[in-house]
Design goal:
By secondary structure, the protein is mainly α. Helix content is about 75%, strand content about 0%. The chain contains six helices and no strands.
Length: about 130
């Protein structure tokens, strides 16, 4: 199970990294024109950038604390934060009628919940 949790955290960190880089460094207008970018219409540039930075921090928080063995409890805490972020993403995409993105966010949510459960529980870094 430890291997599955590491793989899940790696996959989710990759998703967070790609999303974070795009939201942080790609202009809002370019994001809005991309498939699934309709959510950017009602928000400011600052909000998009903040989401991007949060996703970059999530990418680090899912891996780095465990690798360097400094505050590894941040791994499941980050996973719980990702769950909350995905709830918001699902609501936003749902309001826009983008059911494909709702399902994709649900997959990410489930993966984050698995990581949180595993790292707080049976495969905790502290035990």
């Amino acid at each position: 199970m430890n291997l599955a949790l590491w793989i899940g955290a790696g996959l989710l960190a990759a998703v967070a990294l790609v999303g974070g880089v795009s939201k942080t460094f790609v202009p809002k207008e370019t994001l809005a024109a991309a498939h699934g970018g309709g959510w950017t219409e009602g928000v400011g540039v600052g909000f998009v950038k903040v989401l991007g930075v949060l996703e970059l921090l999530a990418a680090l928080g899912l891996i780095l604390p465990a690798v360097v063995d400094i505050a590894p409890v941040l791994v499941p805490v980050t996973a719980v934060c990702w769950v909350l972020l995905m709830v918001g993403a699902m609501v936003t995409h749902g309001r826009l009628g983008e059911s494909k993105f709702v399902v994709l966010n649900l997959v990410y949510l489930a993966l984050a919940a698995f990581i949180a459960w595993g790292r707080f529980g049976p495969e905790s870094f502290t035990g």
